[in-house]
């Protein structure tokens, strides 16, 4: 497949916050463009005046940036195809309505929502797929004028050609065929003058030079309509690929409970963007290797042929796995920011690197970091029940030796434990466990050598003495 000069886009409707489903769509389009050194464009499809909100636009720009899904053309960046919000493109669309009107490919439709609902119901009751019955297609010019004079606001309908077969090769699902006779004439402009999705979406893809569109499978049935529209406007069509939807663990639609979570919620829970990206890039797309990847590697390994046709199943365990991986891989400065004020208040800034190096393997969310900040730097140490029994088993003699060894060697870990082993005759777990319990209040956790290096001498002495 020739993938030179690739241009992809993400075209969200700002009617809510980004959720995992639409982030995956954005990600796949961004990866496809990056992989082929192409461009990724962002367009805001805010033609639904009732449901679109500026606050959702602001949120989605912020969320995309947080995820590192930067666009090369679109809102806040600008580019040769401004404006990038459909609500500001009415004048552009007007030219294309006129073109379709003069070619008689469209007609005004005066049917009311109640009439349309009734017709749909009747067709369904007789076992036919609901389609626009063509009532207004047959109106004479005089009948149209009479309705307009009565003050009726028409929609504009596209006249679907009769007896055509619309064929295209889907980038994911292969060859597709649709009979035009199964598609009723459809609305391209609403009665309030705003463009309908099929129209604005197809026209903008053509005008903005989009070469490839990856989008949810729920849009598959829209594609033949859009191809017909573009053909009658003599505009180029992109290659379309329809992604299998993400389903919940039970195979049903992704509900809120089963992971239909918003990006904002996941971010607030402490997920790192790299975790989401590593997870989502594998949801319906297979990489050769299942190792953690940075943004460049995710793009380099992204291949259209590896997109799956089966529904992708949301799996929280997998997401948690990539979160753990992300925490191990991101730069220390990023982790420090991510840990937040509660950690900054407890851990001296000049020890931040050592602190991160020590606790990284034991941390998955900021709350875990806060736990260790508290255990390592808190004044009063809360010891777990396990720690208390390990300390009791070791006995106070052990800690008298430990304190003496610390006096002799300071935080020099190896000499300290060698000395302690010699003097107590205790080795292995029986040696490390009580030390760990005394110093951290836990029987598991960061490497002891790192803990010793991190804790202030007076804290170490106080904690050892408390066990004598
Ligand atoms: N605004 C549409 C949506 O959010 C875009 C569909 C498409 O990608 O073509 O579903």
Describe this structure in words.
- The chain is mostly helical and 468 residues long.
- Among the domains are: 155 residues, HUPs (Rossmann fold, 3-Layer(aba) Sandwich), CATH 3.40.50.620; 81 residues, Arc Repressor Mutant, subunit A (Orthogonal Bundle).
- It is 47% helix and 10% strand.
- It is built from 20 helices and eleven strands.
- A three-stranded antiparallel beta sheet has the order 3-4-7. A two-stranded parallel sheet has the order 1-2.
- Helix 9 crosses helix 11 and helix 14 packs antiparallel against helix 19.
- The radius of gyration is 31 Å and the shape is elongated.
- Bound molecules: glutamic acid (GLU).
- Glutamic acid binds next to strand 8.
Task: Summarize the structure in short.
With 468 residues, this protein is mainly alpha-helical. The chain contains 20 helices and eleven strands.
List its traits.
mainly alpha, 3-stranded antiparallel sheet, Rossmann fold, binds glutamic acid, two-stranded parallel ribbon, Arc Repressor Mutant, subunit A, 11 strands, single chain, 468 residues
Topology, please?
Elements: E1 7-10, H1 20-35, E2 39-42, H2 54-67, H3 90-102, E3 106-109, H4 113-125, H5 141-149, E4 155-158, E5 165-170, E6 174-179, E7 186-189, H6 197-207, E8 212-216, H7 223-233, E9 239-243, E10 246-247, H8 263-268, H9 273-280, H10 295-300, E11 312-313, H11 316-329, H12 332-339, H13 341-346, H14 352-359, H15 366-377, H16 385-409, H17 413-424, H18 429-440, H19 448-454, H20 457-465
Parallel strand pairs: 1-2, 8-9, 10-11
Antiparallel strand pairs: 3-4, 4-7, 5-6
Helix pairs in contact: 6-7, 9-11, 12-14, 14-19, 16-17, 16-18
Glutamic acid binds at residues 11-13, 45, 201, 213, 215, 219.
């Amino acid at each position: 497949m020739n993938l030179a000069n690739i241009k992809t886009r993400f075209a969200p409707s700002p009617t809510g916050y980004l959720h995992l489903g639409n982030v995956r769509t954005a990600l796949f389009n961004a990866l496809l463009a990056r992989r082929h050194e192409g461009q990724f464009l962002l367009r805001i499809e805010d033609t639904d005046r009732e449901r679109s909100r500026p606050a959702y636009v602001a949120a989605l720009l912020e969320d995309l940036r947080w995820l590192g899904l930067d666009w090369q053309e679109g809102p806040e960046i600008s580019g040769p195809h401004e404006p990038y919000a459909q609500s500001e493109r009415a004048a552009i669309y007007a030219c294309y309505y006129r073109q379709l009107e003069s070619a008689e490919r469209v007609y005004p439709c005066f049917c009311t929502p109640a009439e349309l609902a009734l017709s749909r119901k009747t067709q369904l009751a007789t076992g036919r797929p609901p389609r626009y019955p063509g009532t207004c297609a047959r109106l004479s010019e005089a009948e149209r004028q009479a309705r307009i004079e009565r003050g009726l606001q028409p929609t504009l309908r596209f006249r679907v050609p009769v007896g055509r077969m619309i064929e295209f090769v889907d980038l994911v699902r292969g060859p597709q065929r649709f009979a035009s006779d199964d598609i009723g004439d459809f609305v391209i402009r609403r009665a309030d003058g705003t463009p309908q999705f099929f129209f604005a979406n197809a026209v903008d893809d053509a005008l903005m030079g989009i070469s490839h569109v990856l989008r949810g499978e729920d849009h598959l049935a829209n594609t033949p309509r859009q191809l017909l529209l573009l053909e009658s406007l003599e505009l180029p069509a992109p290659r379309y690929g329809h992604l299998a939807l993400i389903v919940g663990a039970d195979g049903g639609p992704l509900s809120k409970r089963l992971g239909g979570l918003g990006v904002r919620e996941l971010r607030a829970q402490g997920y790192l963007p790299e975790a989401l990206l590593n997870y989502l890039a594998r949801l319906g797309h297979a990489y050769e290797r299942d190792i953690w990847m940075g943004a460049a590697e995710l793009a380099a390994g992204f291949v259209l042929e590896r997109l799956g046709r089966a529904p992708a199943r949301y799996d929280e365990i997998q997401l948690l796995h990539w979160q753990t991986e992300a925490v191990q891989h991101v730069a220390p400065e990023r982790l420090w920011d991510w840990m937040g004020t509660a950690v900054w208040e407890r851990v001296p800034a000049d020890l931040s690197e050592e602190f991160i190096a020590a606790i990284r393997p034991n941390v998955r969310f900021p709350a875990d970091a806060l736990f260790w900040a508290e255990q390592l730097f808190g004044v009063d140490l809360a010891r777990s029940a396990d720690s208390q029994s390990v300390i009791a088993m070791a006995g106070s003699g052990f800690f008298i030796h430990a304190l003496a060894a610390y006096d002799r060697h300071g935080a020099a870990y190896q000499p300290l434990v060698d000395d302690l082993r010699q003097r107590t005759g205790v080795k292995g777990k029986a040696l490390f466990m009580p030390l760990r319990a005394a110093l951290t209040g836990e029987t598991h956790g960061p490497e002891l050598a790192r803990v010793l290096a991190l804790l202030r001498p007076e804290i170490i002495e106080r904690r050892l003495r408390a066990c004598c």
